[in-house]
């Protein structure tokens, strides 16, 4: 109880400090500071002594010591780490294990938004207005109320996360261009939403009100201003609606949640996997612990606990099957692909949102870490750990982007710096009737035989609320003595005493570059001073200190040493994917930096040459799974060529530049490109496939259709693909590889 009293007092002090800072900068985006804050005296952040975290080896010693914990959490994503933090700050003896690194799955592969869910309001209204509501009014209303409550909870949690953690989060403006006063086909598939452009400003003010107007205010942008602000747009707009959502580096936020739990006394171990359940009476009775394995050494041991909580995200069912192989599934995976493009696709740090893509999905263009993040897709399938995205989905995103942007803003396949897929957990009650709807809200359920509780579903934004909900239930069910939840008033690791002036202090005190200073402050908070103490002379006039890991990105070599000694990183792969986000920003740059990272980690952790090589090989294999500028066409059905590529090819065929290709131009260009027709009959047959109107003219739109419809079995198409590096291997083989026309 003494530890709890101290913890509560500590958080009260921290909350006062950080809320005071946050209230000044609430409406700032990532790189903007208010005049008032510049005048405000910076707190003595450099004098704050950071909390130390026991190294991983010590955490494992504690875990295997035979003591009984109050709470044992399986899963080190956002929700599991949040449960561990909540439990530790309530005075409960807590342990957390994760089979990989913290945030190694879903929690690192999001759209990077802390968003309250405007889409969910729209979908809930659309469902309420469907004809089925007349037949099942009570169920429809309940569903609508449930979705609305989820959105209200998300608004509250968004506010908490941004106010408590200005070092990890920022507001990002998102623009929605309205090209006409009537949108058809209507968004969300309901005719009523055809008038969305008319009512959208009012809807967004209502959306602002749900958070008590604590977010930057939504506003309109005129057509004239939109032209200046968004030269990327393909045509005039009636107006542009701008609203704000939160944004963060998701893997860093999750890692900070886990590390903060460790700061508060929880035993936290990554690369530790549950292998079985220990029950009170052999194979019967309630669970009293688990067997687990150190995935780095293979050592196995037992951990005992009064309560066990599964928080495995989309992999929760694999945990549940260890306690009951015949259990009904509770989670359905929804895969989403994201693509990273150069930063110039976003204007002045403002994102774009297409609310009515060809298949009804939302498509975001978001500024993130100096690049442009575009996504996401939505594909229902069982979750896998590989980040490798399907090439078809990369192509779909690029194709949608091309339709959205100006024709002189060419979207090339070679512009893809990185791409990945992640899986959202869609929760369903395992005891519900067949065909019951899945939910984006969370569910909590307890196995009556083992007493193990699992939580799944939900959203990144509501991780803290989910942790509080499941812990409240478990505390009551197990009769544990615990204090109240305090996580809504405490900052995460590096947040106590944080000031937005820290980047200036880092530049002045340590001689690092401004870009690096901003990166360090927004990654480590007040602990950035500890990182900078490890910097070495650069040998340059400026910056005088801090050697970058790779040119073009702000990551420093000394961050490797800091993370190895203070943040439990143990693999080269994790350093490149999660602790820095280099693989998610530029997969080729990550591959180039991998040998240097392996060498630096080897020195910090005392690896042998053999272990350093093994780590490097493992990292290189993992990095090649990410998408990049070169398409991976195995199993793909879409063309490797973007619309820009095909238009460029059309321009080469259109020799006289009159806007169409005729029969003679087709023959001459085929010969010029080294693919002459063997007979006149063959040439006529090919042109006939293009000239469906039979008027001797093939316009650009028809040429694009021919490219996708004919497939790589066509001789000319195949030869052109080879000539322009759209090889048969990249395109797939046979008629299954036929493309689809752009929407």
In summary, what is this structure?
The chain has 743 residues and is α+β, with helices and mostly antiparallel strands.
Protein architecture, described:
The chain is of the alpha+beta class and 743 residues long. It is built from 27 helices and 20 strands. A hairpin with a 2-residue loop joins strand 13 and strand 14. The protein is globular, with a radius of gyration of 27 Å.
Please give the radius of gyration in angstroms.
Answer: 27 Å
- Tell me roughly what share of residues is in helical segments: 40-55%
Oligomer: single chain
Number of helices: 27
Distance between the termini: 63 Å
Poorly predicted residue ranges:
1-43, 725-743
Strand coverage percent = 15-25%
Broad shape: globular
Task: Specify the biggest β-sheet.
Answer: 10 strands, mixed
Strand tally is 20
Given helix and strand content, the structural type is: alpha+beta
Mean pLDDT: 85
What are the SSEs and their pairings?
Elements: H1 2-25, H2 35-39, H3 56-63, E1 68-74, H4 78-89, E2 94-97, E3 113-114, H5 118-128, H6 132-135, H7 137-164, E4 169-178, H8 196-209, E5 219-221, H9 223-229, E6 239-248, H10 250-263, E7 267-269, E8 272-281, E9 284-294, E10 300-310, H11 316-323, E11 331-341, E12 351-354, E13 363-368, E14 371-375, E15 379-380, H12 391-404, E16 418-427, E17 442-446, E18 453-457, H13 463-478, H14 502-510, H15 514-524, H16 528-532, H17 558-566, H18 572-579, H19 582-585, H20 587-605, H21 609-623, H22 643-653, E19 660-661, H23 663-672, H24 680-690, E20 698-699, H25 700-710, H26 715-723, H27 728-731
Parallel strand pairs: 1-2, 1-10, 2-7, 4-12, 10-18
Antiparallel strand pairs: 3-6, 4-6, 5-6, 8-9, 9-10, 11-14, 11-15, 11-16, 12-13, 13-14, 17-18, 19-20
Helix pairs in contact: 4-10, 4-13, 5-7, 14-15, 17-20, 18-20, 18-21, 20-21, 22-25
């Amino acid at each position: 109880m003494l530890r709890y009293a101290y913890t509560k007092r500590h958080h009260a002090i921290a909350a006062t400090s950080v809320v005071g800072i946050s209230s000044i900068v609430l409406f700032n985006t990532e790189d903007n500071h208010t005049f008032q804050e510049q005048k405000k005296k910076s707190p003595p952040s450099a004098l704050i002594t950071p909390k130390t975290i026991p190294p991983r080896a010590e955490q494992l010693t504690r875990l295997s010591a035979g003591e009984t914990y109050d709470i044992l959490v399986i899963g080190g994503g956002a929700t599991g780490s949040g449960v561990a933090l909540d439990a530790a700050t309530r005075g409960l003896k807590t342990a957390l294990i994760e089979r990989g690194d913290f945030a190694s799955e879903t929690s690192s592969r999001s759209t990077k938004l802390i968003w309250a869910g405007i889409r969910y309001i729209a979908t809930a209204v659309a469902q309420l207005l469907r004809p089925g509501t007349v037949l099942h009014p009570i169920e429809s209303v309940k569903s609508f109320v449930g979705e609305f409550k989820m959105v209200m909870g998300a608004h509250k949690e968004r506010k908490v996360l941004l106010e408590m953690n200005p070092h990890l989060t920022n507001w990002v403006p998102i623009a929605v261009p309205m090209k006409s006063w009537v949108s058809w086909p209507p968004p969300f598939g309901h005719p009523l939403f055809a008038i969305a452009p008319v009512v959208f400003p009012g809807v967004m003010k209502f959306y602002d009100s749900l958070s008590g107007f604590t977010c930057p205010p939504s506003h309109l942008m005129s057509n004239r201003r939109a032209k200046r602000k968004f030269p990327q747009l393909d045509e005039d707009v009636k107006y542009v609606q701008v609203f704000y959502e939160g944004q963060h580096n998701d893997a860093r936020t999750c890692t900070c949640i886990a590390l903060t739990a460790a700061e508060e006394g929880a035993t936290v171990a990554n690369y530790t996997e549950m292998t079985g359940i220990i029950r009170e009476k052999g194979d019967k009775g309630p669970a009293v612990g688990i067997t687990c394995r150190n995935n780095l050494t293979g050592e196995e041991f037992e951990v005992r606990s009064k309560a066990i909580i599964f928080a495995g995200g989309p992999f929760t069912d694999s945990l549940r099957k260890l306690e009951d192989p015949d259990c009904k599934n509770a989670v359905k995976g929804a895969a989403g692909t994201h693509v990273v493009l150069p930063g110039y696709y976003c204007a002045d740090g403002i994102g774009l949102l297409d609310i009515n893509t060809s298949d009804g999905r939302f498509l975001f263009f978001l500024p993130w870490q100096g690049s442009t993040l575009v996504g996401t897709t939505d594909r229902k399938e069982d979750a896998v750990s590989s980040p490798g995205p399907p090439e078809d989905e990369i192509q779909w995103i690029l194709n949608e982007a091309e339709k959205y942007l100006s024709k002189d803003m060419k979207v090339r396949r070679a512009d893809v710096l990185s791409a990945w897929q992640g899986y959202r957990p869609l929760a369903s009650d395992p005891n519900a009737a067949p065909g019951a709807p899945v939910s984006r809200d969370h569910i909590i359920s307890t196995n009556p035989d083992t007493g193990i509780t699992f939580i799944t579903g939900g959203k990144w934004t509501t991780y803290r609320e989910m942790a509080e909900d499941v812990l409240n239930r478990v505390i009551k069910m197990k009769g544990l003595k615990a204090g109240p939840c305090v996580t809504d008033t405490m900052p995460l690791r590096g947040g106590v005493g944080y000031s937005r002036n820290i980047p200036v202090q880092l530049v002045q005190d340590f001689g690092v570059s401004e870009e690096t200073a901003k990166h360090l402050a927004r990654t480590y908070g007040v602990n950035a001073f500890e990182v900078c103490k490890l910097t070495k002379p650069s040998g340059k006039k400026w910056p005088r200190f801090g050697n970058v890991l790779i040119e073009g990105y702000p990551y420093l070599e000394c961050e490797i040493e800091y993370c190895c000694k203070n943040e439990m990183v143990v693999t080269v792969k994790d350093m490149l994917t999660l602790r820095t986000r280099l693989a998610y920003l530029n997969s080729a740059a990550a591959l180039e930096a991998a040998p240097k990272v392996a060498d630096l980690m080897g020195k910090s952790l005392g690896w042998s040459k053999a272990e350093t090589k093994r780590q490097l090989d493992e990292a290189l294999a993992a990095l090649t799974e990410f998408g990049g500028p070169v398409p991976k066409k195995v199993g793909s059905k879409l063309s490797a060529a973007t619309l820009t590529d095909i238009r460029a090819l059309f321009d080469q065929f259109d020799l006289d530049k009159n806007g169409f290709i005729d029969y003679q131009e087709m023959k001459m260009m085929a010969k010029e490109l080294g693919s002459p027709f063997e007979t006149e009959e063959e040439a006529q047959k090919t042109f006939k496939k293009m000239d469906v109107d039979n008027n001797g003219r093939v316009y650009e739109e028809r040429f694009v259709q021919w490219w996708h419809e004919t497939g790589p079995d066509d001789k000319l198409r195949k030869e052109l693909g080879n000539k322009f590096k759209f090889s048969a291997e990249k395109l797939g083989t046979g008629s299954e590889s036929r493309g689809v026309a752009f929407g």
